[in-house]
Amino acid sequence: MTERNDDRRTVKVSKYLSKHLRHQPDRIGMRLEDGGWVEIDTLLAAAAAHGFPITREELDRVVATNDKKRFAIEGTRIRASQGHSVDVDLGLPPATPPAYLYHGTVARNLDAIRVEGLRPMSRHDVHLSPDRETAIRVGARRGRPVVLAVDAGAMHRDGHVFHISENGVWLTKAVPPQYLRFPEKH
C-alpha cells in the first residue's frame, strides 16, 4: 500500500472509530462499558462482522498518530476521549480552568450565541480550547472561523463546573452569554 493510500485508510479508520465509539456503538452491536470503554477485541470483531475489518496494527496507528488524541487505550480497552452523543460518563474530575478559554465557531452562529450562549447541541458538553490557535482550527472546519473568548475564571467563581478531557479539551455544560467576549469584527 502506498503512503497516500495508507494515510487515506488511517483517516477512514479514525472516522469509523469516532462514529462507533462516540455516537453509534449499537449500530455495530456494541455496548459501551462505564466510562465509554469497550474491549478492543470486541470492537475489532464487531467492525469485521459489519463489513469494515480493522487490524490491530491499524487501530494502534490511528490511536498513536491522531493529532487530536481522540482515542485512549488502557490495557485491553479503548474509548473516545470526548465528544460523545451517547450517554457516557467519562469519570473526569472537576478541574480549575485557566482565566480564559476559547471557542471556535463561524459568523452565521453568532446571533444565536449572543442570545443563548454556547450550548452542547448534540453533545453532552460544550467543548472549549485552551488557546486561540486550536479554536481557529475547530472553527475552520465549518467555514471562516470566528474565535470567542470565554471568561472561564469568572464562570468557575460563579459555580460552573469544568472538566478537562484526556486530550486537553475543556468541557462544561453550557456557557451563558455574559461570559463570552465577541471579536470586534467578523
UniProtKB/TrEMBL annotation:
Keywords: NAD, Transferase
Pfam families assigned: PTS_2-RNA
Keyword check for NAD: yes
MF GO annotations: transferase activity
InterPro entries (UniProt xref): Ptrans_KptA/Tpt1, RNA_2'-PTrans_C, RNA_2'-PTrans_KptA, RNA_2'-PTrans_N
Enzyme kind, highest EC tier: transferase
Enzyme Commission code: 2.7.1.-
PANTHER family assigned: PUTATIVE PHOSPHOTRANSFERASE (PTHR12684), TRNA 2'-PHOSPHOTRANSFERASE 1 (PTHR12684:SF2)
Family: Belongs to the KptA/TPT1 family.
Stored NCBIfam families: PRK00819.1-4 (NF002014)
Known function: Removes the 2'-phosphate from RNA via an intermediate in which the phosphate is ADP-ribosylated by NAD followed by a presumed transesterification to release the RNA and generate ADP-ribose 1''-2''-cyclic phosphate (APPR>P). May function as an ADP-ribosylase.
Protein name: Probable RNA 2'-phosphotransferase
Source organism of this protein record: Streptomyces cynarae
